[in-house]
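Look over this record as teaching material.
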Amino acid sequence: MKYSGLLLASVLPFAMAYEYRVGVGKDETTGRKGMGFDPSVIHPSAGDTIAFEFRSGVHSAVQSSFDNPCVGNGGFNSGVHTVSDDLAVDAPGLPIVRVTVNDTEPLWFFDEAGGLCHQGAVLAVNPTAAQTATIFKENAALPPKPASSSSSPPSTTSTSTSTANDSATRPDSSASGLAVSGWLATAAGVVLGGLFM
C-alpha cells in the first residue's frame, strides 16, 4: 500500500490539469456556428489541455507564428475535419482533437480551411504584452510574409485523440509547447480507479 501513495503522487498533477475547450467554426460573439475559434484567446498553464472541438463545415487547427499567422510553421496540425451543417453547434459526438500544453510560451493557431484565417479565424494561446492577440489578428489580415530560411519549426512531440465518429486525418506532426494527452488521461483514470478498489 505504501507504493499506492507514490503512484498517486506521480499521477495527481495530470489529473488536476484544466481542459480548455475551443470551438473551431463557432462564432465567439454569438456562440453560434460560424467562423473562428471560441474563445479566440486562452491562457493555459503547463500541463493543461486544449480540446479543439470542430463545428459544422470544414475546419482545421494549424500552428503558426505571430508574424505569419496564416502559414503553418511545421508544428501541430489537426488535419481537416468536415462536419455536417445539420448538426447543432454543441451537438454530442463532434470531432475533438486534444493537445497538452508543455509550458506557458505563446502559441498561435489558425483555421487553414477555406481561407478563413485572413478573415480572423485565429487563436492566441498565452499572448504577451508585446505579442498581443489583437496584433496577431491584425497580422492575419495582411498578406503572408516570405518564409525565413533561419526559422525552424518547433520540435516537441504531440498527438491527438478524437471522438469515435471522426473520420478526419490524424495529425502526425510536432508542436512547440504541446504534448501527448489522450492516453495519459486514460492511464491516470485506470491507475486512480485501481487505487480505490
